[in-house]
Fold this protein.
Amino acid sequence: MKTKYIDLIEQTFHFPQEEFSLQNSQLQFHGIDLMKLIAQYGAPLKFTYLPKISENINRAKGWFDNAIKENNYAGNYNYCYCTKSSHFKHVLNEALKNHIHIETSSAFDIDIVENLKMQGKITNDTYVISNGFKRDQYIQNIARLINNGHHNCIPIIDNYEELNLLSDVIDKDFQVGIRIASEEEPKFEFYTSRLGIGYRNIVPFYNNQIKNNPKVKLKMLHFFINTGIRDTAYYWNELQKCLKVYINLKKICPSLDSLNIGGGFPIKNSLAFDYDYQYIINEIINQIQIACEEARVDAPNIFTEFGSFTVGESGGAIYEVLYQKQQNDREKWNMINSSFITTMPDTWAINKRFVMLPVNRWDDEYERVLLGGLTCDSDDYYNSEQHMNAIYLPKYKKDKPLYIGFFNTGAYQETIGGFGGLQHCLIPQPKHIIIDQDEESNLITSVFAEQQTSEQLLSILGYQKKSERASEPFETQTLENTI
Ligand SMILES: Cc1ncc(COP(=O)(O)O)c(C=O)c1O
């Protein structure tokens, strides 16, 4: 009988896969010898494999190019990176090697844009699409960027007041977009997204606030579906509704020439992942083409703002199984040496699943287990895979260390987890390694951040360093009565 872990995988999936292969029963990810990485840096660790970012950007650009050619589509395609999925400098530096544009979500994002401009990574020609609900600081920062000559910054209007707020502080002509508030999926708690302006109100809003405003040109209609770009009746129906609005607007607004279809490209979350990107893109381009031809309006230039797709597949996390607790006849808990809640918050908050595989011992027998994190929170666990509803791993053996990897975790986990901040039960944030390739395609690694120390956590909590303990307590001030 076939009882090895490798047999289980080979019977269930096509294996090896493009990014996953084995050498001496040990897992390699994009040719990275993960056991070597563990030997060098220890576990737990997180890593970012930079070349995957450029690879995915160029895959998407290629699919759009193909679709544009195949459909004889007159518009062009612009790839924007949604910075909120990972703001790190190494991520942006890698992404910006590929002639892309930027989507921002909040005030401090603009500071990142200005920083990148100073380094010469982007220019005034780089589109900066500024989404999000804009409070004063964001308005001020966008205005500063535009006033300093960034003619391709396009604030996307999210509520009725923003246009006036922007006009007050921008001292030249500027372009804007409008975000459509999409209808949520029928099973969702709400009917209409809180982001953007309702379908029916877009043309009246243009007529009332933009049409006769000599300073402002409407360039873009923005459309983002929370559930992502999927081959479902819901997605196609929302796209059709959006196209109707685009066409109605285009007929009265000649400056409108771009349609932004947002982010939401899925990434590989299981070895069984199967998504035909090229088909979906062909279909989107084809539907836009048909709708515009029928209405006799020019087809728009297309913008996307892929976050997860840009950076998700570049990231991974590796843990060691510390111990096995058998809590009853059926439930064996493999305890990892970190926490799921803090290092992969989406697994806990939105029940998200990532590709999970053992790093070593693929020739050993397997068993069904549950995975537990180190915090004392009963929700700190991971118990099923996207495709199997259970987790199988090589059998726990006290004298044979077992390492497990979670892959494609590169988007959102650091910002949602509060990188460098407090961690649940003060389980320290793991070391973070950057992996790149040199000109000869050799892998090169560097430490981006060491594992958090007790001193760092205590300092955030307001405790003094051991060396300072003898000194005075914090200065106190009286709260002035301002009422
Ligand atoms: C307006 C907008 N654009 C792009 C994105 C990126 O989405 P994803 O990471 O799924 O590509 C988001 C994510 O919430 C968004 O709100």
Observations:
- The first strand starts at residue 20 and ends at 23.
- Residues 82, 85, 103, 131, 224, 228, 262-265, 305-309, 411 surround pyridoxal-5'-phosphate (CB under 6 Å).
- The CA atoms of residues 315 and 452 lie 19 Å apart.
- DSSP finds 15 helices and 22 strands in the chain.
